[in-house]
Amino acid sequence: MDPELEAFIPLFPKSDHSDPVAARKDFAALAVSIPAPDTSDMEIEDRTVPGDPDIRVRIYRPRGAHGAIVWMHGGGWVMGNLDTEHPWAARLAAGSGAVVISVDYRLAPENPAPAALDDVYTVVTWASDNAADLGIDPTRIAVGGHSAGGGLAAGAALRARDEHGPSICFQLLSQPGLDDRLETWSARHLTDAPWMNRAKAQQLWSYYLGSGNATAYIAPGRADDLTGLPPAYIASAELCPARDEDIEYALRLLRAGVSVELHQWAGTFHGSHAILSADISQRQIAEMCAALRRAVTR
């Protein structure tokens, strides 16, 4: 493990996802400790996207931005909201120069799949249909997210392809949760990794799926056909149960003719980029911002 990250392990609170309500409170408390960047050079606006039900979004608009990303927070489909994601959405907008549309999708287990994916797809469609009003280029709309949010972004890209829906130019997938089967080497063997391990992954997937079955949109790792999808940047963490499913998804995209940039970050664990003082975390964030900037602002 990267020594700067390892030094923080004893300070981590014990997280228990057996009580989703308590887990959300703990997640929110951690988010408060993460500083947001300077947002004085951008407009931030809360809006409501019509849907069933309506969906709250927070739009971060840097000066002169035209490209955009519909961005989904992490939290295992169970935790997170616009406020917990604020430091990251603002950081992504500031670092990339792109408009960031942060989505407050419905959470499990109260709203199991496909509720979150439906919300995300509704927002992507809304952003495309209302590009002129939002001041963005409809040909430069990306999707992205971290962890569960990355899985939702990948699922939205698959659905948009299959339904001939909104045009998506890029996928920014940070340690995405892609496969509920948890059959890869990393999913089976990283049982004691920091923050996220096999037991927690199993529990969170069970909340998200509820009594339903996983489809390729809900668990994109199950998709048989990856042709015709947007180019992607995929980041994986060495000490993360989802590591191998992320790498395999990148390889399958490449074999399907999709352009992919894959970075497997050595010495990191799931969500460790939140330790902002670590050099490797700063590099991860800067690279994600640069990848998005290249994709939507050129």
UniProtKB/TrEMBL annotation:
Please report a single Pfam family linked to this protein. Answer: Abhydrolase_3
User: InterPro entries, from UniProt?
Assistant: AB_hydrolase_3, AB_hydrolase_fold, GDXG_lipolytic_enzyme
GO terms for molecular function, please?
Answer: hydrolase activity
Q: Where is the Alpha/beta hydrolase fold-3 domain?
A: 69-273
- Hydrolase among the record's keywords? yes
List the keywords (alphabetical). Hydrolase
Q: Which PANTHER family match?
A: AB HYDROLASE SUPERFAMILY PROTEIN C4A8.06C (PTHR48081), ALPHA_BETA HYDROLASE FOLD-3 DOMAIN-CONTAINING PROTEIN-RELATED (PTHR48081:SF8)
Q: What is this protein called?
A: Acetyl esterase/lipase
Q: Which organism is it from?
A: Stackebrandtia endophytica
Tell me the organism's taxonomic lineage.
Bacteria, Bacillati, Actinomycetota, Actinomycetes, Glycomycetales
